[in-house]
Each structure stands twice: as structure tokens, then as C-alpha cells.
Amino acid sequence: MFHHPGAMGDSDLRSRVVLESIRPAVDGGRYPIKRTLHEPVEVSVQMFADGHDRVAGDLCFAGTEHDDPLRVPLRKVTGDLHCAVFVPDALGIQRYWIEAWIDRWATWCDGSAKKAAAGVDIAVELQEGMAMLRDASVRAAPQHRAALDRAAAALKEPGAAHRLELVLGPHIAELMHAASERRHATRSEAHEVWVEPERARFCAWYELFPRSASPDPARPGTLQDVTRRLEYVAELGFDTVYLPPVHPIGRTKRKGPNNALVAAPEDPGSPWAIGSAEGGHLALHPELGTWEDFRALVERAESLNLHVALDVAFQCSPDHPWVHEHPEWFRHRPDGSIHTAENPPKRYEDIYPLDFESPDAGELWNALLNVFTFWIERGVRSFRVDNPHTKSFRFWAWVIRRIKEMHPDVIFLSEAFARPNVARHLAKSGFTQSYGYFPWKNGRGEIEEYFREITRPEVLDYMRTSSWTNTPDILTEYLQWGGRPAAVIRAILAATLSASWGVYGPAFELVDVRPRQAGSEEYLDSEKYQVRHWNLNASHSLAPLLKRLNEIRRTYPAFHSDRTLEFLPASDPAVVAHRKSGGGRTLVTVVSVDPHGVRETELELPFVDGTRPYQVHDLLSDERYLWTGQRQRLRLDPASMPARVFVIREEHRSESDFEYWT
Amino acid sequence: MFHHPGAMGDSDLRSRVVLESIRPAVDGGRYPIKRTLHEPVEVSVQMFADGHDRVAGDLCFAGTEHDDPLRVPLRKVTGDLHCAVFVPDALGIQRYWIEAWIDRWATWCDGSAKKAAAGVDIAVELQEGMAMLRDASVRAAPQHRAALDRAAAALKEPGAAHRLELVLGPHIAELMHAASERRHATRSEAHEVWVEPERARFCAWYELFPRSASPDPARPGTLQDVTRRLEYVAELGFDTVYLPPVHPIGRTKRKGPNNALVAAPEDPGSPWAIGSAEGGHLALHPELGTWEDFRALVERAESLNLHVALDVAFQCSPDHPWVHEHPEWFRHRPDGSIHTAENPPKRYEDIYPLDFESPDAGELWNALLNVFTFWIERGVRSFRVDNPHTKSFRFWAWVIRRIKEMHPDVIFLSEAFARPNVARHLAKSGFTQSYGYFPWKNGRGEIEEYFREITRPEVLDYMRTSSWTNTPDILTEYLQWGGRPAAVIRAILAATLSASWGVYGPAFELVDVRPRQAGSEEYLDSEKYQVRHWNLNASHSLAPLLKRLNEIRRTYPAFHSDRTLEFLPASDPAVVAHRKSGGGRTLVTVVSVDPHGVRETELELPFVDGTRPYQVHDLLSDERYLWTGQRQRLRLDPASMPARVFVIREEHRSESDFEYWT
Hints:
The structure is a homodimer.
Chain A lengths: L16 E7 L9 E4 L4 E9 L5 E8 L7 E4 L1 E4 L2 E6 L5 E11 L1 H14 L5 H17 L2 H15 L8 H4 L1 H9 L7 E2 L3 E6 L6 E5 L15 H13 L4 E4 L47 H13 L3 E6 L2 E2 L4 H5 L15 E3 L2 E3 L3 E2 L7 H17 L4 E5 L6 H14 L4 E5 L4 H9 L4 E3 L8 H11 L2 H4 L4 E4 L8 H21 L2 E5 L38 H13 L10 E3 L6 E8 L2 E8 L6 E6 L9 E5 L5 E4 L3 E6 L6 E7 L13
Parallel strand pairs in A: 2-10, 11-12, 11-22, 12-13, 13-18, 18-19, 19-20, 20-21, 21-22
Antiparallel strand pairs in A: 1-3, 3-7, 4-5, 4-8, 6-7, 8-9, 8-10, 14-17, 15-16, 23-24, 24-25, 25-30, 26-29, 27-28, 27-30
């Protein structure tokens, strides 16, 4: 009738320490947290035991739960809250957990000191203390033994009760912690941290269509043209060049310019209608070039410190080889035809979605994994994933984990312009970065609300948002109506608010803002359906601004992370002001979101010591000021420059810095 | 190199529905939620899938995860949020979980309707719909088949595209849900719900010392005296009579009256110093009576609808048989002596704590479990556990679960006047009720803040707080200084704010408020150390008030739960006003917390329709009023009655209720 206590399935029923509310943790530890290499992980835990005994513990981290972990002793913050920090020093999937135990030494120190102070006889306590010190000495590292033995000896001497302080200090406490037996330790569940390369957090994306990269308006662009254009992208300071799909394009139901339902024979089609007789996701479009060209492109990019990002769109044109080789990977209708993509009543007849419920799902998943590894083997380390929210979430969790296990330096950008639950779930499932709703946040209120939400630590722990000024699908009305000043404003906001930002160029820097029709967010003559040619040397190009923004971002660590973002009060409701800090510098960015009128605003800087002058350097105009006080008036003119990016320098020299002082 | 997707350890890699944020859940499902029999459990979940497909799901509940569950279809609330309710109909540990799948039928209905409306040819869609209806008919319950077959036939008829509405309605949708194949369903983790008897939630405790129950001042009380006193307790309307430990009391280091360090030979000692040569936790104190007396007590209680609650204090006097029989259950010091309980520099030498880290912990745990089952077999179904926070939390989780598995009607009251983390962890570990900090919440602000915190649904899901006016350890300064009005105020607050309340009597109703010394919360001449005699017929007794309060509590379901508690604005800061509702009635309680002066206050009733008169009945004075408007003035006089308990009746008769109307 009675079950043995061991039946509760716990290795050590004598464990007395309780661990609760371990942070960071995504959904109670169901999903990994994310960090980049050397980005500290501050872990906190509510830790307590029954009775009056003191508790101690370590934050442990290791590659797997079974490895011998690195240990950082937990420090008490307040009440039951304890904290410790570790700094991941290798890429990949790692684990952290807490181990905690009754701290017999601290309990003894506490009790003995109080009893001695109250004049209680502590002869037996002294014996206990000695025994603990001697036991610890046996377990201790060789260099610690002498100190522990000396402490034990001190407790043996007559009058030791009055010289307890010899053993009560933090030095002995530290040695005792290190040599702790950790008897009946409670061990928390292990939590995963995915340690990713720095560009997972700090990244500047530049999207371009290879077929529009030709300097010769008489012919479409090729991979060789892209290779030549890399220098331009690098000069602008971007670190990742992202190419829409480079695969053969289907002919069946091919779309014409401006999404026309019927294409002329010479129309190139949409690169997202992947697959033709020439091949599918593992092939290069013959008109773009050869494998040798692709290799040369990747090598040139590397020499310029650029990453090449490919688009991964798991869908097939009706001409994709898989349609014939693997009919079971597609859903069929009662008349034998294949289900096309649809958003009723619309049907997208040039696209067949893959059926993630296929009876052959295992083979399908492996084939898709193979698409990634195929391109990884060809030097690609960054992927922009098209519409991941229309493919199985479970598949993404599986495939990204598999790739991370093999290639922890690979990153994935999720293009899920879907509702927050969906976008967030994809981030939890492993996507490195996620396109955000930035394009549609144009007023101060909505900008502040949105960025406050996505930069909460609990969100940043799993979702890193990338803010894009535009994409081939998103030419916002703000850009359409606001002209060049609007583009300037959006570039400065994206580059300063988000450690990861991106532009789709050259449309962006050349301020191509004509929509296909009023009310549409599609570009007129979109590169999605036709070849375009761009004059990169146009005098109105925003290239110098983009270059300056990327320079500023690289120079100032404040812009390498979103954790410190804080909005500042500005009297004009059309002015967004924010502060970021890092590397010992505070950066204050002030942007008018009114592309039409001059704005004058009072800016509040509540964090400066308003009683002393401080130096302010506007990195956009290169002007320098000496300010006093926490309030400053600014004038922002969209015709010249609607923004400031200030470095605040509060270091004050005083008479004591002068060389003859002392 | 490639792992088969199956290696992710999931039974169905084709599952496409994501389940997040299942509520209620304590610490993400680590601990059980608590309900009483027939108390509804409203479960919500964020449920969604990739793409445009519709999702459907069931809330499932069953005794174990492997049982065939009862199913309640989830209803969409808003966005991805879905809800369903189940009503537990059996005591014990049960499980609930979510199963969800792609709702092919709803997806088809949506798409086909939109396409038909847009004039798209849906011939193939009609074939798909027919096939789905026919498949479902095969799986459906016999009584549903005809309707499904008729719907399928309707889709075959010419012109069906224009009569789609025949199959789109909620009736077919319901049949299709019931007959759903639940293909590739996603199943959430199972969450536990502990279903307990109603008194786990709604309970009135009365504590009394058996040895002070004698009607004859010349001799101490016995179990027979307690049996005779049960009628008094039942008359006052309490449902549980709780007895401090009834075991033999140790002689070694026995405490004298008022906690004197040395006891005289005739001093009875503290009942919590358990164990002597006569026995330990499984024995009756010989002076209290025999097993026959105990049986008679339990039977008499049952006949009066009273539960007998025993005190469980897992500690031993130095004379407890376990000290000699199981020395390994205690911690020893280097000099061979046993560690006494201590709170340095104090040592409690009449008490040995048990060592939950004993090498023999398994045997110890079973022995303690046996203490519970021993008394359960003797008719005890309620336990008040002394200082559970000084014993291993893991032990409590284990022992309470074991008992709940065998005797789901047993309840446990946790006496953990410890910091919130500790008290809450004990509740999560399985304790049915917990003493709260109510005794120390005497001002309006602290009362409101405290009760708002403990009645948040996330807290109520695992912790039910019992509010006590006093205990043998807690005679608050508020009671000491406030005299009889203070006692009246505290009784009314406890009885109305908390579905579970308790008093330690007869000290409470006889307004014994003399402390052992100024600044102490201990009673002078406390029953903990000596026998007392009480004149239950004293004219100043609060017995009539307690009786009325318990009557009101029984009559009005509003007082049977804390879920509806809401505070109301009152202009006087010394007036607490709250509202509870249930069983179709709204109860408004107004209490002045000033035991000395008359208070006049304006009360706000924002929930009434202020434009029409409504009936108000004060259950304490039995006065009735007709009020109009949302603001009322009240006068509360501590000399007569510092409180009102109003039933609000808003039912309005109108001319249409008159019998000749129509």
C-alpha cells in the first residue's frame, strides 16, 4: 500500500532547496534563449529551503546536461533572489542550469556568531566547525588546503569562541563554497541557450536583385555583375547582401510585369516561382551564371567582409522537378490536380505549396534540410526565409536545430509579416532574426509602443527584430507620400532603433517610391516581375547617408544591441527621441517624423547632470556643442536634415586633472 | 549525417497546430491547479497553425493521461484565443489537456463560400466537400449519419454551388467536429487538477484545547468533555473543530506556564512537545481519554456535520519513542547530543526536529505518512499542519500526493507564517489551505492590497487562504488594544473576506485579549502551557455574532468562494467595503476598522443601476431599505455594530409583471 518515496522519480529525496522562477526562460524553459558570442547571460532564481538553514548554489553551463559544467557561484541579491552571470565563449546550442544545496558552513557561521555574541557556550559548535573545515580541506584544491587547515587549527585553540572572526570572513566562505560537497543538491531543469555569431544581433542587410545588377541597360544582370556590385554595397557599410531566389523560374502560369496574369515570352517571371526543367532549389538560373560565378561571388564577398544571404522559399512552380519526382509532397484535389497556393477567393496558380502533412513527410523534411546544407556547403551562412508562417512550425524547429548543431554560425531571417503570436512562435522555433512591423510604425506613439514591446528583455531573449525601410513587397504609403525626407527619416530610425536593419536597394537609396496603383504597397514596375536598371550615381541618392549611418553603427557599441533602448520626452509629438548606451558612451538620436514641415522641439535628457556643462557631438552634421541643463531646444528641418545623432560626453575635467595638481 | 525527423522524439511530425499559454497553469504546469467538486475549470489556450487553415480542438479531461478523456470542443474567443469549460465530477487527482488539429471542414466552408461569392468555379471544391462529409459519416455516431449523408447528397445536386448554405451552418459544423478524424492532432502536456471536497474552499474552523474543555474548574478537560462541547461549536455554525496535538507530552525540559523554562511537577506542558514513554504520534495522551472516547468524539462530530481536524506537528520531545528507536532520524552533534530546534542564539531544548536528510530518509518518510493514515483510519479527514516550512518541501509534495491518491477527501491546512515564497511553495506542493497574513492586515490600505494579491486568479488556482481572527500564537496588538469592537470587526472581516476562516476559541469569543507582556503577541496564561477554564455563558460573549456570521455564510453562495471579491470605494479611509457575488445575489459588506470612534462614510456602488430604486437588506441588523443612486451615506458605530452586510436585490417588478398584463 505504501509507495517507497523513491517512487516519486527523483534521484535524491533528501534535496531540500527549492528553485523557482529561473530567468531568463522562454515559456518556462520550453524554448531556448538566444545570445551572441561573449554576450553575458545574467541568470536569476528564487532559491530557498525549509527552516533557517542558509542556501548556496552555482549557475552551471555546459554543452550538454551531461558534461561537467563551468560553475559560477550564485550571489544573493535580495530576499530569496540570487543571481550569477556567465559569458558564452563558443557558438552552438548550450545549456545552463542551477544547482543548489544547504550551505552548512554559512549556517554554522551565522549561528555560532550569534550564540557567541549572546554569551552562549559554543564549545560543541567549535567542534562542528573544525570538522567541517577539515572535511572541506580534503576535497579542496591543493592551493586552498593550507588556509582551511589553518582555520580549523584556529578553532581548536583556547579562547577560539572569542576569535571566531578568524574563520567567518568571505575568504574562508569562498574556499568552503569551492570545496563544497554539494550534498543532496537540487538541480533545476537545464535551459538551452543558442549562442550565435555577432551578426545574429548586429547586422545591416542590403537586398538586391541580381538580374537588375547589370551596368548595361541592354542586358539583364548576372552573378558576375553582382560580384562587381559588392564593392558598392561594402562601401555603403552593409555587412550582408541578400539575393532573392537564384533558381530556375517556372514557365507555367508565369506572371508578367506588374503581376500580369499572362506573361510575354520574354518576361523573366518571379524568382519565387521556383523550378523549371533546368532544376529546382539546388540549381542556379542559367541566365544568372555558373557555379564558378557563384563561387567567385562568395569569395569576393568574403574578401569585402560581406556575407551572402540567400532566399529560401519552400514552394514550387508547376514545372519544378519535385512535382513529377515526388507527387506525394503535394496535396491533390479530387480531379487529380494539385492544390495551388490560395487566399480565398484568390488562387495563386503559379505556386504549389508543399504538403507538410504528406505521408512522406520524413523524406520531404530531409530534402528541405538538404537545400540548406547544399548552399551552406557552397559558402552561404545567412538565409532569409520566405513566408515561414505558411509552412509547418514543427518543421522549422526541427530543421533549424539540425543546422545549428552542424553549423552554429548560420543565421536565419524569418519573413513572417503575420500576427504577433505567429511571428513570435517562429522566433521561439529557432529563427535568428525576424522582420518586424517597423514599416507600418510611422507616428511617434506607435513607434514608441512597438519598440517598447519588442525590446522587453523577455521578448529580446528569443526574438531579435530586424527593421527594414522597405522590401520588394512593402513600399509604405509613408514613403510614397513623404518623398526623399521620408526615406531619410526611415533610414535613420531603422538604423538607430534596431541593431539589425535592412534596406531593399537600389530602389531605396534612389528613392523609387511610385506604387503600382494608389492604395497599393507594391512597387510600380517591380523587380519581382521584370528586370530594372539603376543609376547608382544619381545625385539624389541616399548612399552617403546610408554609408554614414553604417559607419556610426559600427563605431558605437550602443547601436549593437537593443537592450538599452529608452525613449526620451520631446515636447513636439512629431519628434521621436531615444537613448542607447554601450561601450561607455551614451547616444541620443532625435528624429522628426514629419517629412514636410520644420519642427522645433524641447528635448529632455533626464540622465545628465544638469548642473554642469557636457559635450554633445552630432554625428550626422559633425557639429559640436557644450550644453548645460536637462532641457534643450532643437530645430529639425526635413529639407536639410530632420534628425540628430548625438554622442553625449559627460567626462568632466577638473582642476585635479591638471598635471601640476598634487 | 542527417537525422530522421522522427528523432525529434515526437509521435507525429505532421502535427501543425501550435498550443501556447494554456491557462490555468501554475508555473507553466509544474504544479497542479486546485478546484473543488463541481467547481468549473475554464481553460484557455492560444491555438494556431501555419497558413490559412482553420484550427479546431478539444479540451480533454480524465483521471490519467492514458484514459479516454471527456471532451469539450474549444470555442474561439478572439484572435487565437480559444476557451472551454469542464466541471469536475469526482474527487481526486485528474488531468486536463488540449488536443487540436487542422479543421479541414471549416477551412473548406470558408474557402468555398468566398469562392462561390466571388463567382469562382467550385466544382472540384464541391467534390472535396462531399468526400469529407461521407468520410465523416462513416466515423460519426449512428444518430448523426443521416444528416451528414443528406448534406453530402445536397452537394451533388445541380446548382449546389448556389445552395452552399445548406451545409455551412453550425449544425453540420458540430457534427463534423464530433466525427473529426483529429488527424495529426497536437496534444499538449497534461496539467493536473486536484479536485477536493467543498470544504477545501468553504470552511469555518474552530480551534479548542481539549484539556481546557472541562466544565468543572477542578479538573482538566478530556475527549469526553470535547464531545459534549461539540454541540456548542455546531450551534455557532462552524464546520470543523480543530484540536491541538492529543498525544503524550514529553517531561524532559518541559515548559511551565507562560513558557517558563522550568515546569512544576503538576504542569501539563505544551501539547507540541510530542512524545513520552506513553507513546508518540500514534498515541493518545492518557489524561485525555481512551480510543473509545476518541471514536465517540468523531462519531458525535459526524452526527453534527462537524469535521474533526487534528494537529500534525512533526517534531519530538526528547522522550519520544522515536528518539531511542530511530536515532538516525535526528541530527547529532560532535558530542553525541541531538541537535535541538533553534533560532540562534535561541535553542528550544524541549524539541528535537526530524532530520529530513537522514540516511534513512525513506523509512522516516514512510513513518510520517503512516501518522496521517493512522488517524485517517480513525475517522480524521482534516489536518492542520504545524510549521510545515521547517520540514522538507519535497517531503510534503510526496506525502500529500500519496494521501490524495488514497483519500481524496482529506484536506491539509498549512501553518506557514513564513515569507510569501515559502508559503506559496507549500501551497503549490499540495496543501489545501494556508493560513494567511490576515491577522496583521488591519488598515484599509493593507487589507485591500493583501486581498487583491491573494485573490488574483493565478494565485487562487493553487493557494486558498484561510483568514483567522487569532491563534494560540497570535493575539495581535489590534485585538489587545481594540477591545470587544476590535474582535467584532475582525470576525466580520474574516468571515466575509475569506471563504475559509477560523477562530481560536473560546479565547476569541470571550474576548480574552491580555498579552503575556506588552509588545508580545502571546496570550497571558496561554493554554499552550496550562489548563484554562472558560465561562461560555458570559454575557459579553461574541457567540451570537459568530453564529450569525456562519449562518449568513451558509445562506449566501457569494461567501463560498473568493473569486468574485472586489473592493468598493468608501469616502472614509477607515472603512473597508467589498462586494462578492454568487448564486444570483450580490453581497456588499461595509466594515469600519476603527474600534474606537463613530465613522460616517459615503459608499459607492458603481454596479447598481442608479436610476431605479433597489432593495437592500442588512443581514446583521435585519434592517431593510429602498435605496436609489450609486452613492449612499452610512454611519458605523463600534459601540453598537461597526459593520453592515447587505444583500442587494435589483429585481424590479414592473407593470408587465402584473397578472392582468397581456
